[in-house]
From TrEMBL:
Region ranges (Disordered): 1-52
Family of this protein: Belongs to the ETS family.
Subcellular location: Nucleus
Species in which this protein is naturally found: Propithecus coquereli
Span of domain PNT: 129-213
Subunit structure: Interacts with the DNA-binding domain of the androgen receptor. Interacts with NKX3-1.
Gene Ontology CC: nucleus
Entries under InterPro entries matching the protein: Ets_dom, ETS_fam, Pointed_dom, SAM/pointed_sf, WH-like_DNA-bd_sf, WH_DNA-bd_sf
Keyword terms, alphabetized: Activator, DNA-binding, Nucleus, Transcription, Transcription regulation
Task performed by this protein: May function as an androgen-independent transactivator of the prostate-specific antigen (PSA) promoter. Binds to 5'-GGAT-3' DNA sequences. May play a role in the regulation of the prostate gland and/or prostate cancer development. Acts as a transcriptional activator for SERPINB5 promoter.
Keyword Transcription in annotation: yes
Protein name: SAM pointed domain-containing Ets transcription factor
Taxonomy, superkingdom: Eukaryota
Gene3D superfamilies in the record: Transcription Factor, Ets-1 (1.10.150.50), Winged helix-like DNA-binding domain superfamily/Winged helix DNA-binding domain (1.10.10.10)
Length: 319
DNA sequence: AACCAGGATCGAG
DNA sequence: CTCGATCCTGGTT
């Protein structure tokens, strides 16, 4: 049992989307069941705050892949009742800190909608993971994150890789000569026609890439703009800004406990880079950024949480 | 090696 | 004067 459930933040880059030998089977099914059927993904207790259509569809499935063991509430019999046995809303999501499995963090004081808050944190984390994995895959395959830009060769690479990751029957031939644009325009039905066995799953994964890359775009241009508001922005404001958009920045910085204002910087270099861009300070790095954060200690704006962890800070006056 | 704490200095506003 | 950038020393993980 120890083999599964990898430490999330310490996963080797080679892992990519899902450990082939642990959760591959179930994860695959979930990916198909969760992401492929966007019509009936009403599992979310509260409507997502963002307009992104596809994203919420694969939170569930992805969450499953990441936590093959702890997802009993969504577990379906292998191959059994896939369509009927639709998972209930998660009553209580497992604590989702990357490390610190033992003490970890106390989620929510209790009382109000625990599911919503936990769900939010799950979402921001999962989105971060998804984007990270896609980023890794892009580097590995030397393709862009946006499938629309893929050449026929890129499409083949992606197919090969996805087939390999998810143990799908090889279907490259069926999609030969197709560019990214055509691929993205294809319906799930058309995918199935070309590949009766794994077509629906492929389509589901392409969907994930599509929605992930659109959120990437919004990240790209919002990092330039929004400084045009005028007066100089404060670091703490900037950090809250990033935290407000987990879809865009969730892989860089995210809430560990929004109610308490506890957040974690997941990618210190990237956060520093964004801050440098915003302030037009190309030499910015995390060393300097963190020094500025430390200046907030005495001003009572940010502090270290009670249980001090690396890269984890806390707003003194959370909203 | 990366993170953390905090003193010192400097420039912009 | 405030705020943040930069640099630095020294400690911790």
């Amino acid at each position: 049992m120890g083999s599964a459930s990898p430490g999330l933040s310490s996963v080797p880059p080679g892992r990519l989307l899902l450990p082939p030998d642990t959760a591959s089977r179930t994860g695959l099914e979930k990916a198909a069941a969760g992401a492929a059927g966007p019509e009936r993904r009403d599992w979310s207790p509260s409507p997502p705050a963002t307009p992104e259509q596809g994203l919420s569809a694969f939170y569930l499935s992805y969450f499953d892949m990441l936590y093959p063991e702890d997802s009993s509430w969504a577990a379906k019999g292998p191959g059994a009742s896939t369509r009927e046995g639709r998972p209930e809303e998660p009553e209580q999501c497992p604590v989702i800190d990357s490390q610190a499995p033992g003490g970890s963090l106390d989620l929510v004081p209790g009382g109000l909608s625990l599911e919503e808050h936990s769900l939010e944190q799950v979402q921001s984390m999962v989105v971060g993971e998804v984007l990270k994995d896609i980023e890794t895959a892009c580097k590995l395959l030397n393709i862009t994150a946006d499938p629309v830009d893929w050449s026929p060769g890129n499409v083949q690479k992606w197919l090969l890789w996805t087939e390999h990751q998810y143990r799908l029957p090889p279907v490259g031939k069926a999609f030969q000569e197709l560019g990214g644009k055509e691929l993205c325009a294809m319906s799930e039905e058309q995918f199935r026609q070309r590949s009766p066995l794994g077509g629906d799953v492929l389509h589901a994964h392409l969907d994930i890439w599509k929605s992930a890359s659109t959120s990437e775009d919004s990240w790209a241009d919002s990092e330039v703009d929004s400084s045009c508001s005028g007066q100089p922005i404060h670091l703490w404001q900037f950090l809250k800004e990033l935290l407000l958009k987990p879809h865009s920045y969730g892989r860089f910085i995210r809430w560990l406990n929004k109610e308490k204002g506890i957040f974690k910087i997941e990618d210190s270099a990237q956060v520093a880079r964004l801050w440098g861009i915003r302030k037009n300070r190309p030499a910015m790095n995390y060393d300097k950024l963190s020094r500025s954060i430390r200046q907030y200690y005495k001003k009572g704006i940010i502090r270290k949480p009670d249980i001090s962890q690396r890269l984890v800070y806390q707003f003194v006056h959370p909203i």
